[in-house]
Recover the amino acids of this structure.
């Protein structure tokens, strides 16, 4: 297992030891590389056996900078693991019916195994309609109500890529979860809620007691202080400060926010939901941003795509 251990001098925030704490950096580059290596081996064997490569269709509407970056990265990662990808682009003023027709056509295409629509979508388009238009057998983002329902009932399904990626990360770094108290901040359908379901499920990296928090949760700080595992998925840069974190907690930072910074080359910096510099000396393990959960999200998507392919080709 390729885990990087970082020794850090204890900060003044740490009351219980005067020498060094070992903090495990949950490095998404290392964990996602391991997942991708395994996927590449599988696709190579499939292709050597004379079958076609798995095929993912990604739909991108408009030219939102962050969405462009995410989709470009998904396409590049597909290539790296032997998955064919097709990018279908629409202008931001596309009609909802046009988009739904494109999804119907991809649903009907036996050569397409997985379909994703990059969110968010422009206002004239109902995201819910679009999510529900995707054939659940090709729902590699795991957002369809059918996939979500199966997840709740513990049935095999596509797990939304970000929570799936986090579970893969916990597995890669052999993080014990059983019996722990996990606190998830955020209850979205794509991150917080499925994450809370997975962590509470009877899975190897589940069996936690889970508290799910949201924008109406009073005493958030007190709840976070009880967390053995804290998942921050609220989209507020550096919201989680050192005084919200228990000694030795495992910190999973899902947040990705572009914060303006004229000194940065691109004019912005990517910030997580956790103040890494403050919190990392107190944590036993922590994901960096960037380079943490984001990379695992892609790994989760690729795994779902291969699964969709195998189901489609009945192999
Ligand atoms: P969302 O806006 O849909 O949901 C945010 C959730 O946080 C809501 O449930 C809300 O109730 C809660 N929340 C907001 N403010 C809060 C507060 N002050 N206290 C407690 N709860 C609060 O966001 P999302 O789609 O779940 O994404 C969350 C973050 O994760 C964003 O920064 C997003 O960019 C990032 N994200 C990252 C990845 C990745 O691959 N790393 C994937 C998806 C989303």
């Amino acid at each position: 297992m390729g885990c990087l251990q970082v020794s850090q001098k204890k900060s003044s925030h740490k009351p219980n030891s005067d020498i060094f704490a070992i903090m495990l950096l949950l490095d998404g580059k290392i964990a996602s590389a391991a997942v991708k290596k395994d996927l590449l081996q599988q696709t190579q064997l499939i292709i050597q056996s004379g079958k076609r490569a798995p095929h993912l269709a990604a739909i991108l509407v408009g030219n939102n900078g962050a969405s462009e970056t995410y989709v470009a990265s998904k396409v590049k990662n597909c290539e790296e693991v032997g998955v064919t990808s097709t990018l279908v682009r629409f202008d931001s003023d596309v009609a909802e019916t046009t988009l739904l027709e494109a999804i119907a056509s991809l649903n009907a295409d036996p050569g397409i195994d997985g379909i994703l629509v990059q969110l968010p979508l422009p206002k004239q388009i109902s995201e819910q309609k679009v999510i529900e238009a995707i054939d659940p057998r090709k729902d590699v983002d795991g957002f369809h109500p059918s996939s979500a329902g199966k997840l709740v009932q513990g049935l095999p399904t596509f797990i939304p890529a970000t929570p799936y990626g986090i579970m893969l990360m916990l597995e890669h770094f052999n993080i014990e979860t059983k019996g722990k108290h996990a606190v998830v901040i955020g209850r979205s359908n794509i991150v917080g809620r499925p994450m809370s379901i997975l962590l509470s499920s009877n899975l190897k990296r589940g069996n936690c007691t889970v508290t799910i928090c949201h924008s109406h949760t009073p005493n958030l700080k007190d709840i976070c202080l009880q967390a053995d595992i804290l998942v921050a998925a609220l989209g507020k840069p550096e919201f989680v400060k050192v005084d919200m974190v228990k000694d030795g907690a495992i910190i999973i930072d899902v947040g990705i926010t572009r914060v303006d910074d004229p000194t940065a080359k691109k004019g912005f910096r990517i910030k997580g939901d956790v103040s890494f510099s403050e919190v990392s000396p107190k944590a036993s393990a922590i994901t960096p941003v960037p380079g943490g959960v984001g990379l695992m999200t892609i790994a989760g998507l690729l795994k779902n795509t291969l699964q969709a392919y195998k189901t489609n080709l009945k192999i």
About this structure: The mean pLDDT is 94. Residues 162, 185-188, 190-192, 213-215, 217, 220, 233-236, 254-257, 293-294, 297 surround nicotinamide-adenine-dinucleotide (CB under 6 Å). The two ends are 29 Å apart (CA to CA).
